[in-house]
Write a structure and sequence with these properties.
By secondary structure, the protein is α+β, with helices and mostly antiparallel strands. It has a single domain, classed as NE0471 N-terminal domain-like (2-Layer Sandwich), CATH 3.30.2020. The strands form two sheets. A three-stranded antiparallel β-sheet has the order 1-2-3. Strands 4-5-6 form a three-stranded antiparallel β-sheet. The longest helix is centred in the middle third of the chain and has 12 residues. The mean pLDDT is 89. Bound molecules: zinc ion (2 copies). One zinc ion binds next to helix 3. One zinc ion binds next to loops.
Length: 124
């Protein structure tokens, strides 16, 4: 039997709409989450991005060098049955977005009522 928590963090359907720059996830418990791709890019959980964000927090006046990160999805693949990995058009693609984290970060009015600053950690 599948527990409710497992259902919450289990996507039935993942749709990436490149035109709307949006990822829509339909979860097994019936909840639907919509994530903007630029937000997903911004909260990329890979080590490089975490470090960059940490530095930016320590030095608020730091200017970002190089081109702005691309929020165009080149490719997306499932990692096992627990996560999704995006490859962005600028070649970045190390961030693994756990479904539990995505669900915990759902920006809808009933969950977070807005986009969280970082990818939140969800229960497993
Ligand atoms: Zn990253
Ligand atoms: Zn929600």
């Amino acid at each position: 039997m599948i527990s409710n928590v497992t259902k919450q963090n289990h996507p039935l359907d993942l749709t990436i709409d490149r035109e709307a720059a949006q990822l829509t996830v339909e979860w097994a418990d019936g909840h639907i989450s919509r994530y903007r791709l630029p937000w997903l890019r911004k909260v990329c959980p890979c080590a490089t991005c975490l470090e960059e964000r940490e530095q930016a927090t320590n030095d608020p006046l730091r200017l970002m060098s190089g081109p702005l990160p691309s929020a165009v999805v080149e490719n997306a693949e499932l990692v096992g049955n627990y996560a999704i990995r995006f490859s962005w058009a600028d070649g970045h693609g190390n961030g693994i977005y756990g479904f539990a984290s995505l669900r915990a970060s759902c920006p809808c009015a009933g969950c977070n009522a807005g986009e969280p600053e970082y990818l939140l950690t969800g229960g497993r």
